[in-house]
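Journal club side-thread
Mid-discussion, someone asked how the predicted structure for our own chain would compare to the paper's figures. Pasting it here so we can look after the session.
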Amino acid sequence: MSMREEFEAWAIESGETALSKAHMLKSEDGEYYNYAAKTYWKAWQASRAALAIDIGEGTPAGEFREGAKVISISEAIARIEAAGVQVKS
């Protein structure tokens, strides 16, 4: 789920806002027509931008525990950034 999809699901389903699916209509450039939706979206993006994860140096391949799920650092970074969280380099 993309950051925008996560936002829209929260905005519509959480009960925290008075927004409905109709409020989520966007122009061709991706901006919400509805002022409240646009404002919530900007706040959502800012809250995610404030988060940053330091993923460290990594672990040599031979040091993983048996049964551990292993992905590459680049894949981990891609997944974290897809969630809208900044990764410190």
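Post-session note: The chain has two domains: 1-50, 52-89.
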